[in-house]
Automatic annotation (TrEMBL):
Residues 4-83 form the RACo linker region domain. Residues 88-248 form the RACo-like middle region domain. Residues 250-506 form the RACo C-terminal domain. This is DUF4445 domain-containing protein. Pfam families: RACo_C_ter, RACo_linker, Raco_middle. Coiled coil: none annotated. It comes from the Bacteria.
């Protein structure tokens, strides 16, 4: 990054000590030194308490840390000596499944360390809705969820401190990017209104929060990316900061499919968005043998000469299958005729297609092949649930495009965000109809844009106003209010779709393989 305009600013001051004829208060002495550059500066109460004896012990050579607010600047830290060399911030992607955190050097924008772990909220339910129900109308339950959220964050802070050797309590500002529900839980606020009609959250924007008062093991302020709506959160706003749709003439589509599916279509002239629950299917959560992307998870599948081969994360024997593996598996079975276009297994096509407990499934690892010495199956029930999720995601895209009056082919750039989008095989995703069939060079994979957006705000304070403008500009569609949404979803339940003309490259490949005439 060429220009560093961090959210917090450090200045080293050499102040004349009080003496005869100059008996101004210590606080006023500091403020006088700052007034020309910063104008109005406010001391946080806990920082005022540090002035004496720190300033006198430091011989009035001190480093102050300031954070800009609407009315001026807040003085959030006071240190003895010149401490400008150590100026760090914390960026967080507060996901419902996992939480990622980075320590950022605010002098250079360098990433000093990164840690990731499962969100401990999972003990209140794998899906967000279970957690919302747990906290509904129960202050003690909400407190539990909040404390668990903070425990996750503080554990990551400890891990970062151990890795970098830098005390996280010296971090001057923390930016947290997460969906609307996660930020409600972070603040200990009942998220039920997000789920109940008319689906309006308690708040969209937190402003600055005091880190210590919140219970976070850092200093200074916490800033949460603003949300747009119930299912369109600050993580999407972060993603848009990285994609930059709102700055470009070309028509772009931003997609982040995980537990929820979030989509934004537009350019510098307009932004229209929608979101809905995608469920755990795309993270492997719908299958008995499904798992997160970790060691032992099948993440790649190939069928050649009617022989199924799998690859696992870590190169070990398979223990289950994650989302990218499921997408590969379904795509490969479709291309090779192991399933029909509705996802039904063709039992005579392979010995791998077996019947267990009255239900067909594909045996992607038998007892000798699996690391658990148990059969690993992807069943017809798993298939049906996955196709429901795929149908919901593709219908959301279709609905956005139709609302604007454009065809998928007119999308000049498609930005794919999130862990699932990063590791998925693009050809497989298009084959099953999860993404539109566009020229492959139009796809841009952003990775964890939620975390990257938080870092961009840490290192460029102008991004704050940009994020707030984005929040206000986006037109949000309620997919549930569309009369024909369910009928559209039904059409999308076929692989890749009932209308093969929407997927010309898939159609041509199926014809080449004799699957279509």
């Amino acid at each position: 990054m060429d220009t560093i305009r961090p959210l917090s600013v450090k200045r080293f001051l050499k102040i004349g000590p009080p003496g005869y004829g100059d008996i101004r208060g210590d606080q006023e002495r500091i403020l006088a030194e700052l007034s020309e550059e910063f104008g109005t500066v406010c001391f946080l109460p806990e920082i005022r308490e540090k002035i004496y004896p720190l300033c006198r012990a430091a011989n009035w050579e001190i480093t102050i840390t300031l954070i800009k607010n609407k009315n001026g600047w807040d003085l959030v830290e006071l240190e003895s000596g010149d401490q400008r060399h150590r100026h760090v911030g914390i960026a967080v992607d507060l996901g419902s499944t996992s939480v990622a955190m980075q320590m950022v050097d605010l002098n250079t924008s360098a990433i000093l360390g990164e840690e990731k772990m499962l969100n401990q909220q999972i003990r209140f339910g794998d899906d967000i809705l279970s957690r919302i129900f747990y906290g509904k109308d129960h202050r003690s339950h909400l407190k539990e969820i909040q404390e668990t959220t903070l425990a996750t964050l503080n554990q990551l802070l400890s891990q970062l401190e151990e890795k970098t050797g830098i005390k996280t309590k010296t971090a001057t500002v923390t930016v947290i990017s997460g969906n609307t529900t996660m930020i409600h839980f972070l603040l200990g606020i009942d998220a039920w209104p997000i789920f109940e009609y008319p689906f309006a959250p308690v708040f969209n924007h937190t402003g600055y929060l005091n880190a210590r008062e919140l219970g976070l093991g850092t200093s200074g302020y916490v800033y949460c990316m603003p949300s747009v709506a119930n299912y369109l959160g600050g993580d999407t706003v972060s993603g848009l900061l990285m994609a930059g749709l709102h700055k470009k003439d070309e028509l772009g589509l931003f997609i982040d499919i995980g537990t929820n599916g979030e989509m934004v279509l537009g350019n510098r002239d307009f932004l229209i968005a929608g979101a809905g629950a995608a469920g755990p299917a795309l993270e492997g959560g719908i299958s008995k043998n499904g798992m997160k992307a970790s060691n032992g998870a099948v993440d790649r599948v190939v069928i050649e000469d009617n022989v199924l081969r799998v690859r696992t994360i870590g190169g070990v024997k398979p223990l289950g299958i994650c989302g990218s593996g499921i997408v590969d598996l379904i795509a490969q079975m479709l291309l090779n005729g192991w399933i029909d276009f509705s996802g039904r297994f063709n039992s005579g096509k392979s010995a791998r297609i077996v019947k267990r407990d009255g239900e067909y499934g594909v045996l992607y690892a038998d007892r000798n092949e699996s690391g658990s010495h148990e059969e690993l199956l992807f069943t017809q029930t798993d298939m049906s649930q996955f196709i429901d999720t795929k149908a919901a995601a593709s219908t959301m895209v279709e609905y956005l495009l139709e609302r604007v009056g454009v065809e998928a082919a007119e999308v000049e750039r498609l930005y794919v965000s999130g862990a699932f989008g990063t590791y998925i095989n693009l050809e497989s995703a298009i084959t099953i109809g999860l993404y539109p069939d566009l020229p492959r060079e139009r796809f841009v994979f952003l990775g964890n844009s939620s975390l990257d957006g938080a870092v961009s705000l840490l290192t460029d304070s102008e991004k704050m106003e940009e994020a707030i403008r984005l929040q206000k500009r986006i037109e949000y569609l309620e997919f549930g209010a569309a009369d024909d949404f369910l009928s559209r979803m039904f059409a999308s339940r076929f692989l890749p779709h009932t209308d093969f003309n929407r997927y010309p490259t898939v159609r041509d490949e199926l014809k080449k393989r004799g699957r279509l005439r």
